[in-house]
Each structure stands twice: as C-alpha cells, then as structure tokens.
Amino acid sequence: MLLNNYSSKVLECGTDEAGRGCLAGPVTAAAVILPQNFSNHILNDSKQLSETKRDKLKPIIETDALTFGVAHVFQEDIDTINILNASILAMHKSIDKLKQVPEFIIVDGNKFKPYNNVSYKTIIKGDSKYLSIAAASVLAKTYRDIYMNKIHEEFPMYNWKKNKGYPTKEHREAIKKYGITKYHRKSFRLLPNQLKLDI
To answer: Which reaction does this chain catalyze (predicted)?
Structure first.
C-alpha cells in the first residue's frame, strides 16, 4: 500500500526521472502534487506496471493532480554535465513547471540538489512507497516513451519504439552496424568495447 504523504505539508511534491540508463534520447523527469485524499489501487512504481496500465494512469494522474510538470534534458546536456546532474536538472525543471510552489519535495533515489529554499527528502525506492513519486515515475516514463516513439520514425533501425533507447542487444547491434545518431549520448559506453566505435 503506497502512502499519501511523507511530510505534514499539503503541497508535497513527488519527483522522479526515467531514461537514466539509456544510450539515446533525453532523461525525463516529472513532478506531481496530488490532493491529500488521492487514492488509486493500480498506481505503483512505473517499472512494476505494464505499458497498458501506465497509459491508462497517465490521464488519471493529469486530471486528479493539483498540478504536475514534465521536463526533458537532452543528450547534449547529458554529455556536458553527466547523467546524474542531468537527472537532477530535469527534476528541477519539472518542479519549475508546477502551478503551485511545493512546500516539501520527496525525491526518488538518494541524490538531489536543493531546489530554491524548499525542504526535501530523498527516498530510496520512493516510487514504490509514495503515491506522488509513483505518479511522477509514470508521467516521466510515459512522456519519455512518447518522445522515443517519435524519434523512432526518423531512425527505425534502432527500434527505439521497442527498446526506448535502453542498451538492449538489438540496440547495440544496430549501433555497431549503423554507427550513432544525433540522439545518442556520446559520453556513454555505447558498445561493450568502445574501441570499435569511431565517434
């Protein structure tokens, strides 16, 4: 059973990201403030949910949330500031988009940087403990998937529609065969033996 709030604040925002371990595309974060009486028996960490369930939850979260924000940080920035900083930046940008300023922030994971002067708490596996983080994980994942499906049309040989940019065997084989695209993260180890790849 996921909990509603960590703090006693009414405007508690949950934030999470998707796409951190991918070889291509953005890291995407979402921030969500849910009403205190919010409940949903399907909602859980997005990794525990099927694509069908995530797609079903997306409009429910968007309708029921007091406010939500979603932000992408793209591969060029990931290569410049590294994936951890890019993930935190994406979370900050998603919080920027909230219509109400959160009074408290709960973050999935163990790394975060202060956002303005708002108190926060990092929570390991927070997306399977708190509804607002689970909701953020669903929005981050669904919005990122929509983006990856779109760029798949441009480079179908990498099958991003299916692997969403993650390092599957098929994705690595395509990199070996076709090289890299403008969407690939050049700072990542794109092939097990990087020497084979001429960037």
So the answer is: Endonucleolytic cleavage to 5'-phosphomonoester
